[in-house]
Design brief:
- It is a single chain.
- This protein is an alpha/beta fold and about 300 residues long.
- It contains 13 helices and 7 strands.
- Strands 3-2-1-4-5-7-6 form a 7-stranded mixed beta sheet, with helices on both faces.
- The radius of gyration is 20 Å and the shape is globular.
- Bound molecules: S-adenosylmethionine.
- S-adenosylmethionine binds next to helix 2 and strand 2.
Length: about 300
């Protein structure tokens, strides 16, 4: 398997997780395995690699460098489902590098790409029932508008939702090239349909809900002193992680006077400001441009 995905903020993740020799780690977004391999190379005793895309796991099982290493376990499931499992397994560190991989993006038939024409699919897990086409066939205008706003803070979400559903009704929205035309406008630096593609992908894969429900549960699966590191690529997701970590660190996140937050300090923020890619990484991998890494450590004594 030729690796297409360049792992983002790799050195920064290793530093944030402070890998313990022989320690147990979980990588919620295994992808092409770059982060997991680096964690193994740093001395981990076990890495549980999770991905909702069985195809990426099958590729790794076939030709990945550590495919036969007993320290690597691969699981086809979602972050949310893995986090909810109550098998009592605890980890020294957990990583989530959210979003899609370069391989997924560049495979036209998966329908993620704006550049290459493909079906209206966008499922990270192709065994999942609802593709983008199915979603658009059933969603109501108001719901599409509110989903677009909620997950991606899309400007003029209602107008965009109407355009998309009208095109579908007229039969002029069948492929991703149609979506690029319907959602696009004048070209600037970034194709104008980019935020719409991103928002629809987040909706089809329930990415926002995965993070909102899954991350608090993942924190519970850390040993005291264990660390949770999350890389986001979108401001709405980063806001969610920032708020969750602030809550876990016992900070106020409400707008009430007096404060109504529980203010129980269960974690220590290791990144008061998110870590962004260096100039060198941005040059080597422009896809890293919107990446932000945040990390929290579970306190040894929790209330
Ligand atoms: C950005 S890539 C990760 C790349 C990986 N860190 C590497 O170095 O190769 C994201 C991967 O995580 C998977 N993924 C995204 N969200 C997920 C979720 N909520 N649960 C499980 N897997 C997820 C995607 O299918 C994709 O393969």
């Amino acid at each position: 398997m030729q690796r297409l995905h360049k792992s983002v903020l790799l050195a920064e993740c290793l530093e944030a997780l402070a890998i313990r020799p022989g320690g147990k780690y979980a990588d919620m977004t295994f992808g092409e395995g770059g982060h997991s391999e680096a964690i193994l190379e740093a001395g981990a005793g076990l890495v549980v690699g999770v991905d909702r895309d069985s195809e990426t796991l099958d590729d790794y099982r076939e030709s990945g460098t550590y495919r036969t290493d007993p320290r690597l376990e691969l699981h086809h499931t979602t972050l949310e489902e893995f986090a909810a499992q109550s098998d009592g397994q605890k980890f020294d560190g957990i990583l989530a590098d959210l979003g899609v991989s370069t391989r997924q993006l560049l495979t036209a038939e998966r329908g993620f790409s704006l550049q290459a024409d493909g079906p209206l699919d966008m499922r990270m897990d192709r065994t999942q029932e609802t593709s983008l086409e199915d979603y658009l066939a059933h969603v109501k205008l108001e719901d599409l508008a509110s989903d677009l706003k909620r997950v991606a803070d899309l400007q003029q979400a209602r107008g965009m939702a109407r355009k998309i559903l009208n095109a579908r009704e007229k039969g002029t929205l069948r492929r991703t090239s149609d979506l690029a035309r319907v959602a696009g406008g004048a070209w600037s630096k970034v194709h104008p349909a980019t935020p719409v593609f991103l928002a629809l992908r987040m909706i089809v894969n329930r990415e926002f809900d995965q993070v909102e429900t899954g991350l608090p549960q993942l924190f519970e699966r850390l040993v005291p002193g264990g660390r949770l590191a999350v890389i986001t690529f979108h401001s709405t997701e980063d806001r969610l992680v920032k708020r969750l970590f602030a809550t876990l660190a016992g900070r106020c996140v409400c707008a009430h006077t007096p404060c109504e937050c529980p203010r129980v300090e269960r974690g220590k923020l290791l990144t008061p400001k998110p870590i962004a890619p260096s100039e060198a990484e941005l040059e080597a991998n422009p896809r890293s441009r919107s990446a932000k890494l945040r990390c929290i450590e579970k306190l040894a004594v929790t209330a």
